[in-house]
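Exercise 7. Predict the structure of Two component, sigma54 specific, transcriptional regulator, Fis family from Sphingomonas jatrophae.
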Amino acid sequence: MSEAATKRRLLVVEDDAGLARQLRWAYDDYEVTVAPDREAAITALRAEAPDVVTLDLGLPPDPDGVTEGFAVLGEILRLKPDTKVIVASGHGERASALRAIDAGAWDFYQKPIDIDALGLIVARAFHVHALEAENRRLADAAAAVPLAGDLVTAAPEMLKVARTIERVAPADVSVLLLGASGTGKEVLARRLHAASRRSGKSFVAINCAAIPDTLLEAELFGHEKGAFTGAVKATEGKIELAHGGTLFLDEIGDVPLPLQVKLLRFLQERVIERIGGRRAISVDTRIVAATHRDVAAMVAEGSFREDLWYRLAEIVVRLPSLAERSGDAVLLARHFLARLAPVLNPAVTALAPDAAAAIEAWTWPGNVRELENRVKRAIIMADGRAITAADLELADPAGTDPLNLREVRDAADRRAVQSALTRAEGNVSAAARLLGISRPTLYDLMKAHALG
Ligand SMILES: Nc1ncnc2c1ncn2[C@@H]1O[C@H](COP(=O)(O)OP(=O)(O)OP(=O)(O)O)[C@@H](O)[C@H]1O
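Solution. The predicted structure, encoded as tokens:
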């Protein structure tokens, strides 16, 4: 990086050309931009995003008053609220200086300027800005890693789910987790167990879709010796193994009807009988079930028992898809990179910028599981220190170098509209509110991008 790029940027808004020149040369440590009026100031703010601004309140067309200066102050703070603005006021204008502080300015000084004194104020403003930025970064990082059970998220949509889980954990109610494949249903089930009073006992998971129907009953309920061919010894089922703890029934929507009846009986009576056994065995376990299926529709068509559904769904928690969790894809990619690279390929330590951009742009139909798999593969395939979009198999065949700003903006607009519509469940008025635009504008955008 060049020295200029690492220098801190100071914007001096000053209409007196002589004074502006003097200030420009006074501050070697900063990259100084001078703006003589409101338009130039806002253009420079947008282009350079300076952290500190010195602002002469008396600007044309009102060089003897303060109206223009206050207008610039207001606009700077609206566009970049973290900016430290130091206002300059003429002799005897202490009242306007104090009003400026009240309006959000960081500090003030009185003209005529004492370059050294102003230099100290500017240096302190940069220092405080840096501290505040670091604090925000740490707070974001802390919010992003509430790691019990390895749940990584900073998205409000998912943090809300995590809070619900924490709230229901101590109560012994059954919880049904609904979400697409790979959204982290098992991660949440483990988190629920860990936060419950059963955390000292076992968490037993069974994927009802992964086991053939004929074996599922024995897996769940266990069997006595000789109950069927091959039953050479008595075996406890998963339900029994979860005694005292939590039983996670993944893909509950795949349990066949006859077994649904047996499960319901267990949930009502809290006793089981092993296959081939006669003894009733009491089991105290908390049930957490999950499915990616539309169980309500299955109940309506008769392939899932309504009474079982109500037993399982005392609390229903819906998981947003990864695409609906703003910012989480890149956050999770970094998390998997940090966790997996030391094991798979320690030379890899970073995400290349094109990889981060491609991750943001991808729709993640396979959710977190797909992301984890792609990052795993990319770590293994990467040639250098950073994994690229190509390593993730997310490279745009036309190349990731955008044609122009319009193309980048169009793509960003499309993504924002799509995500707002998803979050608003297709409700156009709600989506428009989320985006801060009017309904007609949103309709225009939807038409332009062939959405909806
Ligand atoms: N928020 C998250 N933070 C960290 N890792 C996550 C998160 N969500 C999911 N994972 C990881 O992604 C993978 C898939 O998650 P999990 O098995 O919980 O999903 P699932 O919804 O149960 O999937 P399926 O329905 O396919 O069984 C796991 O390796 C899990 O550790």
